[in-house]
Amino acid sequence: MQILQAPKRYPQADLPPVFPNGWYPVLESRELKVKQVKRVDVLGLELVAFRTEDGVAHLFDAYCPHLGAHLGAMGRVVDGCIECPFHGWRFDAKDGVCTHVPYAAKGRLKQKVVVHTLKARQSEQ
């Protein structure tokens, strides 16, 4: 018995990304106030933009890794973190690591829970 393999339809090659690597504007800096959370859709991704108390803008994946709540739907900025509107989980604005679960026993917080972050740059031009 002989096993036939289908010929490869396309030569193997490194294809360029669908969108070139680079910076993409998502909203104007003046549109994002301190402690404000905004829904942002860019390049087919649902994201949230928010500004912490120190005035720095951040960009995260829109969904909480706990149960998938949309952080842009009544999420809020608390102590340098974005807080999930459903169960109050907080994620550090710098790296997306979970820093607070309201019902977790002290010292039992699993810091492996992380929201995907994207780099945000501000320009006043």
From TrEMBL:
Q: Name one Pfam family in it.
A: Rieske
Q: Which residues form the Rieske domain?
A: 23-105
This protein's GO CC annotations? cytoplasm; membrane
Question: What SUPFAM superfamilies does its record include?
Answer: ISP domain (SSF50022)
Q: What is its main location?
A: membrane
Which terms does the record give in the GO molecular function aspect?
2 iron, 2 sulfur cluster binding; metal ion binding; oxidoreductase activity
Where it sits in the cell: the answer is: Membrane
Q: Which UniProt keywords apply?
A: 2Fe-2S, Iron, Iron-sulfur, Membrane, Metal-binding, Oxidoreductase, Transmembrane, Transmembrane helix
Protein's name according to its UniProt entry: Rieske domain-containing protein
